[in-house]
Amino acid sequence: MNEAIKPSSVKMAETTKDHGKVPTKKKTPWAKFMTDDEYFPYLIKKNVRPAMWRWKDVEPQLQEVAGDPLRRADRRFIALVNADTGEAGGAVPSAFIGIQILNPGEHILPHRHNSYAVYHILQGSGYSILEGEKFEWERGDTFVCPAWAVHEHINTGEEQAIQYVFQDMPARAMERNLMWEEPIGRSFHMVEGEFSPHKD
Question: Can you tell me the distance from the alpha carbon of 146 to that of 169, in angstroms, rounded to the nearest whole number?
Fold first, then answer.
């Protein structure tokens, strides 16, 4: 047995009780059969057109959300969504782009998610703690937060900090395996009908 894992520290998942009373699923009408001639056309998706978001349109909305109170490990951002991505809700089908804003002195509490995040600082200065390591940043800097790494952000400057954030969140959501823990100790699994980390 692995020395690092002691039996008393392992919490086993609870099993389903009274197996004999669990109803047997006999049919799943959504389970289909397709020939190759049917399947390949089924895979063809609508084309995603190029899209552009202008700062003069984004900035006023960003300032509007900057006045919202922070809740738990909340972040204030404007998501750049290309409607051609449909239910994926991305800038492209597999990727999220968000413009995030922190007011002077604000602290985004420790949290994590199984989507990676790439941050580019458009304005301001501060630092982020990623997995216990402190990374100071200012305008022009870029840093990466790996998937499921605990991280937090602090604006130490006298102006608003604005971060351009790129994540693979839509890809994780489409695979039904998008997860958050925010703040640490409060977990969410993005599955159809369940949401959200920012809703109390």
Answer: 12
Among candidate residues 101, 182, 195, 174, the one with its CA nearest the CA of residue 148 = 182
Place of tokens 């022009």: 140
107 and 153 Cβ atoms separated by less than 8 Å = yes
Q: What share of the chain has pLDDT > 90, as a percent?
A: 68
Residue range(s) defining the domain that contains residue 64: 55-190
| pLDDT, tens digit (0-9, with 9 covering 90-100), for 157-172 | 999 999 999 999 999 9
pTM score = 0.81
The verdict on residue 136 lying in a domain is: yes
Backbone angles phi, psi at 127, to 5 degrees: -150, 160
Cα(88)–Cα(169) distance, integer angstroms: 9
Total tally of structural domains belonging to the chain: 1
